[in-house]
Amino acid sequence: MNETRREPSRAVAAAPRILVVEDESDLALLLTYNLEAEGYVAESVERGDEAELRLVESPPDLVILDWMLPGVSGLEICRRLRARETTKTLPVIMLTARGEEVERVRGLSVGADDYVVKPFSLPELMARVRALLRRSRPERIAEKLSAGDLDLDRETRRVRRGLRDIHLGPTEFRLLEYLLERPGRVFSRAQLLDGVWGQSVEIDERTVDVHVGRLRKALSRGRERDPIRTVRGTGYSFDETYGKS
Ligand code: CA
Question: What pTM value is reported for the model?
Fold first, then answer.
């Protein structure tokens, strides 16, 4: 297999992912188009039950959720997101045609972070998306990530361990970036493929092991501590105790 052709492009893979759940296809298209133009990776689904599947499979960084949907309502989806450990803090912006104060209160009471009434202005919605990501996922837009003596700079694409420059290939860089965004969280190989390589690729899960191996080799020399933890039967995580013990 030709692996180099499948290296993720940096701009796409590193951008925050947004799921749009909206059954009006014109509006869904308009939203995804504008989100992509802002540099996000946007995907849309039309049905509530479809959204549920996507959200369990691979939680995005933010959801724009319409209230009235076929399948499962936006309100119910939001309630379920909040009840699930992996999506408890996932930022949600609810869209609705109803502007009644009582509906607004209901939306916020099931845990939506923000609430936008249709018809809305696109620049305003984009501003809210930015603000919400900045507030809830600062690590997704931070220029620098670090843990202990390890520093990763997204702007310059440099990684350092103490005073030493670490040279990583694009996939290893992205893998480290992804793990460092959520120290301690354990990712399955399938989740890493999704997050690092992207949705549409068909790659064997063992490829993940190969790249984790390369990343480890580049990060640690001799007896230096390995910051990546292998969780047997599950996957990998960045050791959240690294640099703290
Ligand atoms: Ca609708």
Answer: 0.64
